[in-house]
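Why this split exists: single-chain examples teach little about how molecules sit against one another. For that reason, every record in the complexes split bundles all components of an assembly together and asks for one structure covering all of them. Below is a record exactly as it appears in the raw files.
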Amino acid sequence: MSIGKKDLIFIAIIVVVFGIFWGISGEEKTKKVPYDDKHRSFYEIVKKSGSKMDADKGCPACHNEQGGIPFPDKHPIKPKDGPMRCLFCHKLIDKYK
Ligand code: HEC
Ligand code: HEC
């Protein structure tokens, strides 16, 4: 039995589908906002105002490049790139929302 053109197309579709799943799961690996003393207040802000952008404003107070907790070198964006939407990538932990 030889592999025909239709088989190759079928295999290609499977590869693409797995690629999409892999891409989605990769995104979910971004560290979540810890539920600890330093971050609990942000869970409260989001709960009360429903606005993640309100919560974002408080992050640079500690997470900054001027003596705060530095971002890893591979961090996709830096504060100088403009306003940071931290919670767009770093999700809150579901069970504490
Ligand atoms: C009061 C200071 C403070 C504020 C404000 C703060 N953080 Fe943090 N954050 C820390 C410290 C300290 C650590 C490292 C130790 C730890 O996990 O508590 C940290 C760690 C993290 C981590 C890495 C967690 C891990 O699993 O390694 C993420 C993600 C994070 N913060 C996101 C945020 C976001 C998003 C905000 C704004 C909503 C925020 N932080 C606001 C102090 C702060
Ligand atoms: C475009 C998506 C994106 C945005 C926006 C973003 N981050 Fe990140 N962040 C990442 C990725 C990806 C990593 C590296 C993978 C990881 O460790 O989660 C990371 C890593 C981190 C880490 C180190 C985690 C560790 O201990 O390894 C901290 C702390 C952090 N981000 C805080 C923030 C804060 C605070 C903001 C907002 C000022 C922010 N991030 C905005 C995607 C983002």
